């Protein structure tokens, strides 16, 4: 246990007093040995290119990192966190410099503010902190790495909550404050429920605009700042209470815009991400959430009426059918992924400082929930680093690291700068912290626990309970050393009540297996100590823990999984130090198989099968009862939506804040499924929840064509159906052959055309002659060729097959298509470039390198396309190879073997599986830094190529 002794340090500010410094115990380091001396360091070159045009995004050679850090982590840290202009002596080039800059500031401030009993304790703190960071035991959130120890503003928080009152001055302040926060690359949330509804009168006698109208201005502001050169979009959250008279309009805002986007797309407008015509679409820069109370949810449960209240008088001005309103929320989210839901009564029941104000909003990803005009700095622990060689959890080291991190995080508030004075005052008065973790999914799989199982949830709950118990126990010790937070005296009874609620939830935790047993024993002891010390000292922090998405910092720590998420897939790409990448099976899988009792020969066979197929179904020797251990967020076997909800419910009672997580559901999910998930989230005690249905946003074809008549015939009519007629190719026709390489796999495309123009056949060659893969590609070629001859438009295939994901995938040797998500993705992009006119290609988002360059330079890419087409028409046309007809099908006569790819070839998944994979990523944006497709991370997206995120740190 950490001791406190009297010291001479004093806190700066109005409450300066004599303090007791902390005795810091050395756990990870060795006396007399600097932590850097125990690390093997090596020099590396970091060169990051844009897959779209091959240009170099970032280059810094000779950077210094630990030898056991991955190249991916090296690239992300060097490109994002090193400070100083490239090519100058001021530029950081070693991880040692980065860690020294950050840890040095924490140690210096802690010494000045009286956190340490002696200089020796300060040195131990410094060494322990540097060891933990260099060994990837935890990481601070991104703003710390950006700002701490530099000459810029010392902003350490990534999460902000603002407030808006029912005055024009307050609304305009909201616009300004959001803009300042967005400019710094952070996000903010706000509740607009104080603004009077559009049905209420102004003091002048006119009718109010209502909160939804003011959302338009804020959305436009966020969109402008987003396009102003930031590396990630302006992230924001807008919340409205369920009893606001404008709640129905709020619920429908994004669903209506989604209808508009589809209409614009079908009319030929450019409404792709970043498209020229997207400026007319509103409300796209925020996550929307409805705040629901227990009274509303009980009205939904009973099917009764619910009252909407005036913002000016507090009187009920209208009543609605609660179930109908709840259904409209679910339907809007089903259509457009918004709104999410926040459970107001639950949030405020766990509120430590209610005497200082209600919790009315959250940050953009919904994990930080506390007072208005406040902020929270985050840090996440890498759980897999505490799994020992004998597959037990190192409770002692985990406890000590949590103590260290909480101490450092609290120190940062003493030197931190804030975007507004109001936020600074609130944060310094309540000292909100957000410790969390990453790699939970990887830890569960490695220890043989299915994510969606009682055992998996028991492990997660035990770890979360221990983390929060230690955090608050340390906070109570800090209160004894440097004083409780300024707002504690006013909220002492409420804070103690919430601590008892956490402790009671721990008492109710059900142990299932041996792994969590010692963790639970430690958490029970820690809660007892927390209550005992807190009763005497109070607490230093109003809030301690939450679960953030850990996007970029998860890559910095070489985590396989982020936040509370399960594993994303069983295989991933690993970047190599010398350049390039290779596909590997997740490292936790062999360990999981060993823990499940498999022998080494069986493990090797199963791993080889996973490498080839990407899943475990029918893996040799793997028992079906063990399949759930390897279930992932996507793929052949994916975790059911309610499995995600149950995991959130297992850990929520042990968190001060909430959880950043989106529950993904398949495209076939119904509105009723959304209602069930939202209702179960309330019943299970969650604080916030968002649900995303695959392909619900732009890109999903309408179920009914806009050209179809909307009128129903008054009487039955006989309709003559025009049957398609096959237009066969002549015996001799022009064709061209293109060779390609995708992710190391080599192949050929031969495309034959009608003499009067128009593609009529396609032959795709991949894999050795006689192999299963070659046979599948031949059959696929015949099917496409026949369909083209029956009149199926080529653009239909391009739309369907581009962006399809499966291996082999990756870099290509085609300057027009630098990166392909699969061989099929590449083939149909290449065919589109060769056989579709510019207008159709542009509508599908397929442009050549020259056209993209012209577009980036502000020129008209259509002119480039016209020049290329003019040249192609003037060039001589040569006849290609002939084909013969056999049983009515077009079959290629040329059979040229292609070399076997260096990496293992494998056929694509079944159609339903690929559709599911595509759904998880179809709406993910392209990374604005490197251009690769991002993947979901909590409520945001993260780029595995360069670590950029779409709004979360």
UniProtKB/TrEMBL annotation:
Biased composition (Low complexity): 883-893
Superkingdom of the source species: Bacteria
Classification via InterPro entries: RdRp_reductase_class-2, RNR_2_N, RNR_lg_C, RNR_NrdJ/NrdZ, TSCPD_dom
Entry cofactors: adenosylcob(III)alamin
Region (Disordered) location: 1-21, 858-912
Domain Ribonucleotide reductase large subunit C-terminal stretches: 157-692
UniProt-recorded Gene Ontology molecular function terms: ribonucleoside-diphosphate reductase activity, thioredoxin disulfide as acceptor
Catalytic reaction(s) noted: a 2'-deoxyribonucleoside 5'-diphosphate + [thioredoxin]-disulfide + H2O = a ribonucleoside 5'-diphosphate + [thioredoxin]-dithiol
EC number: 1.17.4.1
Record-annotated TSCPD domain positions: 730-833
Chain ranges of the Ribonucleotide reductase class II vitamin B12-dependent N-terminal domain: 46-136
Keywords annotated in UniProt: Cobalamin, Cobalt, Disulfide bond, DNA synthesis, Nucleotide-binding, Oxidoreductase
Keyword Disulfide bond: yes
Keyword hit for Oxidoreductase: yes
Residue ranges with Basic residues bias: 11-21
Alphabetized Pfam families for the sequence: Ribonuc_red_2_N, Ribonuc_red_lgC, TSCPD
Role description: Catalyzes the reduction of ribonucleotides to deoxyribonucleotides. May function to provide a pool of deoxyribonucleotide precursors for DNA repair during oxygen limitation and/or for immediate growth after restoration of oxygen.
Homology family: Belongs to the ribonucleoside diphosphate reductase class-2 family.
Record protein name field: Vitamin B12-dependent ribonucleotide reductase
Native source species: Lipingzhangella rawalii
